[in-house]
Fold this sequence. Notes:
This is Bifunctional adenosylcobalamin biosynthesis protein. The chain is α/β, with parallel strands linked by helices. It contains 6 helices and 7 strands, in the order βαβαβαβααβαββ.
Amino acid sequence: MNQRTLVFGGARSGKSAQAERLAAASGKPVIYIATAAVGDDEMAARIALHRQQRSEHYAHWNTVEEQLALGDAIAQHSTPDNVVLVDCLTVWLSNLLFSEHKEYPDIGRIEAPALFAAERERFLQALSQAQGEVVLVSNEVGMGIVPQGAISRWFVDEAGRLNQAVAAICERVQFVAAGLPLELKGHVGHMGHSA
Length: 195
C-alpha cells in the first residue's frame, strides 16, 4: 500500500525520531534520503551525529544523499517493497532557494532561482506518484515572530506553502512537539493501515 506521511514540528521537537520510528515499524527495508549538505563545521558535526545514530539503531537502512533533485530520488527509490524516509524538506527547500549563491536584498521582492519551481513541481509530482510508503520530515518555521528582512520572510512563506502542499498529498500528517506526535490527518497506528 502506498501511504505518504508528513511528520513536522519545530527544532528539536522529536520529529526525526518519530519519522524513523514510523519507517522502522513498517517492517520493510528503508531508503533514507538525506537532504543536508556539509556547508560548515557545525553542519558537518550534525550530519556525522545523524549518521552515527542511524547506524546504531538502523544499520540495515540504505542512505541516499540528495540536496536538490529530491523528486528524482523519490521516483527512483520508491517501490511497493520499501519505505522512503526523507529528512528533511526544510533543508531541501533551503538548498533550492539559495542554489544560485547570490546576495539577496533586505527589502523588496525576491526572485526564486530558476531551479526552484521546476524541482518543487517535480518533487510534488513524484510524491503523488510514489509506488510505496514515504515518510517526510519538515520543520514548522512559521509559528514564531515574523522574521525581519525580506529573505527570512521569503523562506518562512515558502516553507509554509511547501508544508501545505505536501500535507494535501499525504494520507497521514503528524505534528510533533516535545517528542509527542499529534495526529492531524490519517489513522493512528502502523503505517500499513489506512484511515
